[in-house]
Amino acid sequence: MIQAGLRLDQAPPISVPFRFFLSAPPFLVLAAALLLWRGPEALQWRLTPAALALTHLFTLGFMSMVMVGAVMQLLPVLAGAPIPRPLAVAAVVHAALGLGTLSLAAGFVFAAAWLFKAGAALLGAGFTVFLGAVAAGLWRSRVRNTTVRVLRLAFLSLALAATLGVALASRSGWGIALPAAFADLHPAWALLGWTGLLALGVAYQVVPMFQLTPAYPRAMVRYLGAIVFGLLVLCSGASWLGGAWRPAADLCALALAGAYISFGATTIVLQQRRKRRQTDITLAYWRLGMASLIAANALWALRILAPAALPERADVLIGLLALLGFAGSIINGMLYKIMPFLAWFHLQSTGRTAGQAPNMNQILGQAAQRLQFRAHVAALALLVAAVAWPAALAYPAALALGASGVLLEANLIKVLRAFAQARPARSLSRIDAGSTPNELPARRSSPSP
Amino acid sequence: MELIGDYMTRHHKDCDVAFVRAEEKAAAADWTGLQREAGIFLVEIERHIAMEEELLFPAFEDRTGMSGGPTATMRMEHEQMRGMFAQMRAAAEARDAAQYLGASETLLILLQQHNIKEESMMYPMLDQALGEDAAQFLERLQSAAC
Q1: Is the pLDDT of residue A79 over 80?
Q2: I want to staple A141 with a disulfide (CB 3.0 to 4.6 A). Which of A23, A81, A364, B24 is the partner?
Q3: What is the pLDDT at residue A424?
Q4: Quick one: pLDDT band at residue A352, thresholds 50, 70, 90?
């Protein structure tokens, strides 16, 4: 039973998500800079130090940075799970994630144990605080729906992936011994668990929302998340046991690929059947993301079924498609909706009487988004091609990736400036105290001074 | 027996269709069409809000004693939406497609997340609170539609 006083809208102050969103594109630029420096070496095999640095700059510095910020914004609203002390949690997690990522990447690049130690400690602390805050919020939540169930599985996956990651960094930092399986389980849980399940949970809500598509099939919404999680557990167990269990691990992996392909294909079909026919950049990003998801999983399945058919470098291709193609695209597309909407919402909630809050298109127009989208597509295309011709294409790919990062940051700053310029002069502490329904200022009859 | 939630959810979808039609007219710079379709959409959505604020929410608040709870949030969001309705009306009259589409884009997110909350939380609570009286309320809603 819902108790009296339940507020369905308990979003945190705007600086909570915004600091994460604005910090993410610089890591793209940093990744591009690394690629420019180390060039082809980063693309030859997924486990070269340069490749590992590049991967983590992207997965932690860009992807997780945005995902964490989005969760801190959406969890209170989607799951009625207010995060305790959001400003303090955001400050700690943001700093730990940012500095930890830099340390870890530097550790890979300079092969310095102390950097791995710093990275392990910072990232461990950051994810612990984040997951602790999320758990505290979910504990108090009375909302029981499929999205919340899928999100819980995503957070469990993150806990496992982060633990494995910190362990692996600790191995490089302190030389502790670890089972060999950790090196494969970590990316599996990070990508198929944390990233994939969060994408599922969010997609079930926002895909029908943004283009008025039909709802996802009920069976998929109810069971796919649990199936993916279950398969990951089985796959991990079988990989761990090894030997005679290898075929079982392969079977689970194929089932996982199938699960994600079905999700990608379903999303594309739903978007084809949308009521709202206009194409916007977010839709374009989703289509690119789903196509990349399908391609990555198809290649992965092929690799399992016919390993001899693909060169070793196919792993790099799969990684690029899964990370930049899939995750990078939908994260980018979502940013272009979330940030302008939040800016509008917070401006609008502070009770402007002189004029109206600028609408989303006025805050960030399609033209600016389109330019950055093209840079992203160019970067993806060049990187994919660079797998086959690293010497020739690594540098152009790096430039395109850098351009994409710079343009994205420029667009996000546009949103920030639109928010800052439109907002009436108020002390920052009142804005940061958050605008809640019960605290809306009374509408004045004369414009504010 | 149809629940109130089902009826109201269906009306959400009807409003979605009207919303999209109006947007299409704006995108095509069909000003007469826009004024007509935007008019239809705004009438429908305001009727929906009136059903909630004048009939369903007061009944819920009476039966549960919760006036500062979920219905307060829903009312506040309705107020935010009214601001966007005014912008859309003005833009349709001024034949300003960019302004209309910007306002409707913003309204879309506000409206859809509001509808999700209503369909997943508010309406089930309503149906539960109204209990046996639900059929009576449903009749009143349906007769108000004519």
Answers
A1: no
A2: A81
A3: 63
A4: low
Percent of chain A with pLDDT over 70: 91
The answer as to whether A447 is a domain residue is no
Tokens of A344: 């509008």
Domains parsed from chain B with CATH numbers: 4-144 (1.20.120.520)
Q: With 0-12 CB in 10 A as exposed, 13-18 as middle and 19+ as buried, what is A75?
A: buried
Report helix, strand and coil shares of chain A as percent, to nearest 5.
80, 0, 20
Facing residue for A205 by CB, picked from B20, B98, B116: B116
What's the rounded Cα separation, in Å, for the pair A165 and A152?
20
Q: Domain containing A323 — which CATH number?
A: 1.20.210.10
Instruction: Kindly report the pTM of this predicted structure.
Output: 0.90
Q: How many C-alpha atoms does A250 have within 13 Å on its Cβ side?
A: 12
> Taking CB atoms and an 8 Å limit, are A8 and B112 in contact across chains?
no
Q: B-chain residues within 8 Å CB-CB of A360?
A: 102, 105-106, 109
- Compute the average pLDDT of residues A367-378: 97
Model ipTM value: 0.88
In a domain, A446, yes or no: no
Task: Check CB contact under 8 Å for A2 and B116.
Answer: no
**Paired tokens of B129:** 């609170």
Buried b (16+ CB within 10 A) or exposed e, A172-193: bbeeeeeeeeeeebbbbbbbbb
| pLDDT tens-digit map of A143-169 | 777 888 999 999 999 999 999 999 999
State residue A48 phi and psi, 5-degree precision: -70, 155
Judge contact between A86 and A13, C-beta under 8 A.
yes
Provide the residue range defining the domain that includes A185: 15-421
* Number of compact structural domains in chain A: 1
What's the mean pLDDT in A299-306?
95
